[in-house]
Amino acid sequence: MELLDGKRIADEIKAEIAAEVEAIKSKGGKIPHLVAILIGHNGASETYVGHKEKACAQVGFKSQVLRFEDTITEAQLLNEIKKLNDDPDVDGFIVQMPLPKHIDEQKVIEAIDPKKDVDGFHPVNVGRMNIGLPAYVSATPDGIVELLRRYKIPTEGKHCVVLGRSNIVGRPIANLLSQKGYPGDCTVTICHSRTPNIKDHTLQADILIVALGKAEFVTADMVKPGAVVIDVGITRVDAPGTKSGWRLLGDVKFDEVAPKCSYITPVPGGVGPLTIVSLLKNTLKAAKKEVYG
């Protein structure tokens, strides 16, 4: 069993991006510029945006965070988005989710210029990805693909089972792994909350990707020997007696499943570190006009 070390891969990619930014700088080119819009004071969102700022500094990007109170109206937010769409110095920007209840998230996503949508949520980017055109791929699916690629895990002809059908993870990763090329050429099954006998499907998986948000849902009897298991879930549970009082669990019961696997992601430290790297990769692509020319 080998651990898929997302942190090591993330550090590798950051070093590659930093070297490229250095080369752009030395030629007097435009430094990639990423902006994040943060609304309200959600603790998790504050943390994520802090990590993104730090990562931008590590690779030499220009970055800024626009902070607004959660009393901002939908119209005001859409106006801020328009300003960023129109600003030629901004290569990419994200609106940190979740948003306050009075703001329509889908309307906000669709207001972002697809050329600057480095989160990869705009229907134009999702559509381009679905038919195999260059696109900004959303962070988690991109991170999973990167892990498979960097560890040189064979995918051609493999049966990949995806647990979860969200638009952010399940659907896009199923699509990407079914496409021609590497990592791809998989036969893909998607299971979800209405799938009967999920275990019958998971036992057939050469590659099992779990993105349900249910702590320790996958147990050893659900996994075939030698499978590659990628755990996207992350749930905070109380852990009396620990310093923090809590710990993080994945969707896979790691201690009992790991011995059966050829490869498995830890939680934390698996897919997570690669999600911010995907944002950096998309911003660099935006600055270089690689996707839309």
Which descriptors would you attach to this protein?
alpha/beta, three-stranded parallel sheet, Rossmann fold, 293 residues, six-stranded parallel sheet
Structure description:
With 293 residues, this protein is of the alpha/beta class. The chain has two domains: 30-114, Leucine Dehydrogenase, chain A, domain 1 (Rossmann fold), CATH 3.40.50.10860; 139-272, NAD(P)-binding Rossmann-like Domain (Rossmann fold, 3-Layer(aba) Sandwich), CATH 3.40.50.720. It is built from ten helices and eleven strands. The strands form three sheets. The chain has a six-stranded parallel β-sheet. Strands 3-2-4 form a three-stranded parallel β-sheet. Helix 1 runs parallel beside helix 10, helix 2 crosses helix 10 and helix 6 (139-150) packs across helix 7. It is globular and about 55 Å long.
Within the CATH hierarchy, at the fold level, what is the topology of the largest domain?
Rossmann fold
**Can you tell me the overall shape?**
globular
Helix content range of the residues, please? Answer: 25-40%
| Class by alpha and beta content | alpha/beta
Order of helices and strands: EHEHEHEHHHEHEHEEEEHEH
> What is the number of domains?
2
Calculate the terminal CA-CA distance, rounded to whole Å.
43 Å
Strand content: 15-25%
| Count of beta strands | 11
By CATH, the superfamily of the largest domain comes out as: NAD(P)-binding Rossmann-like Domain
| Rounded Rg | 19 Å
